[in-house]
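for the recovery benchmark. tokens below, seq after
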């Protein structure tokens, strides 16, 4: 089971690299990770910065699940 999980994460990382590479090609319409994060950081509902809160929550969840022991 552990090997399957590791393989899944490696596959996700490889797909991320391929999509980022495709986004950085000349004339590509695919947004880069930086563009997506910038769009999320600007998203607000009224005075509440929902995008920033969501991005912070995502990073908190990621760190809690992969860095905490």
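predicted aa per position
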């Amino acid at each position: 089971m552990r090997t399957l999980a590791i393989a899944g994460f490696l596959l996700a990382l490889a797909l991320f690299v391929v999509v980022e590479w495709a986004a950085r090609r000349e004339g590509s319409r695919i947004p880069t990770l930086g563009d997506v994060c910038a769009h999320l950081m600007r998203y607000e509902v009224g005075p509440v910065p929902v995008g920033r809160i969501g991005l912070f929550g995502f990073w908190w969840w990621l760190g809690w699940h992969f860095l905490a022991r």
